[in-house]
Amino acid sequence: MTANNKFHLYVYEGDYGLPSLNVECTKCLLYMSMSKVPVQVKTLGNMKHCLLYSAPYFVHKNVSFKTYAETVLYLNTLNYNLDAQLTAKQKSEALALSYLVQSKLRATLEYVFWIDQRNFEEFTRVWYARALPLPFNIIQTKKFKENAVDLIDSLYHKDSTIEVIKDNLNVLATECLSSLSARLGTSNYFFGEEPTSLDVVIYSYLAPLLKLPFPSNSISTLVALWPNLVQFVSRIDAKYLPGLPKESKYIKNEEKMKTSDDEVSYIAISILTFSAMTLAFGFAVSKGFISSKLF
Question: Where is the Metaxin glutathione S-transferase domain (predicted)?
């Protein structure tokens, strides 16, 4: 396969046995593993990749896509189709279950990652600060948190307390997980012995709740109440995502994952951010990504 014909996928890095800490990136990675797409995966772990790409970002020949849905539609045209054997009725059911998962678990996951103050301060922000280079760790963390806040604000009345929101998300997650567990039963996958795109979506939302060591985990521990869903995640790990390290690359077990305003100098952060952005700009000009004639 020539360089121009190769499949390339840019994603946020994985950790704790996850292919990526980003749900959309996990969907892309798992779909390609299951459908045997010969893709070259690159992470947004350096300045160059962070400057040039978002994630997920899929490239093939002269086309590129920035979402999981667009990427799958394109792969289907190349006969990488996990749903080819499903009947029309099964495809309709898969669509309904996919909507159920995303409507009830997406907000839950966003809350656990970005809204729960303890999780954000002690885990999420710490992890991204170490996984991405400056200033992108600050920029992306701010962006993801704002998106999560916007989502929760769109779902709940402005006067809703954080406890009311959390309790409601618990109820929605419980309802969703109960339905999924009943539908899966003793089967290996949701439509029998072979995985489909529905399994990709469900895994991508369940796995972070099972694997990530959130300090505040009342919601995330819900998944463990349904053993067949836990086994479902483990089954996919073993067959399609083998060998992923379960230990964290960035946060060691013995570390105290806690920061406070007293421990962080925002003046120092501002200086470092400005310096890093200056370096990034200089790199972009030197490589011709930005024309110096504009100035």
Answer: 173-236
Contacts of 184 (CB under 8 A, 6+ apart): 190, 228, 229, 232
| Crossing angle of the two packed helices 162-184 and 88-110, in degrees rounded to 10 | 150
**Residue range(s) defining the domain that contains residue 11:** 3-77
pLDDT along the chain (295 residues), means of 10: 78 96 98 97 89 91 96 98 97 97 95 96 96 92 96 92 94 96 97 97 97 86 92 98 91 56 40 49 54 46
Question: Within a 10 A sphere around the Cβ of 162, how many other Cβ atoms?
Answer: 13
Distance between CA atoms of residues 126 and 114, nearest Å: 12
**Quick check: is 248 in a domain?**
no
Summarize pLDDT for 117-147 with one digit per residue, the tens: 999 999 999 999 999 999 999 999 999 999 9
pTM score of the predicted model = 0.84
| Whether residues 221 and 93 fall in one domain | yes
Per DSSP, the three-state class of 157 is: coil
* Same domain, yes or no: 92 and 71: no
pLDDT tens profile 209-255: 999 999 987 777 889 999 999 999 999 999 999 989 988 989 876 45
Q: Which helix (H) or strand (E) holds 41?
A: strand 39-43
Q: How many domains does the chain have?
A: 3
Give Dmax over CA atoms of the chain in angstroms.
64
Tell me, what CATH number does 12's domain have?
3.40.30.10
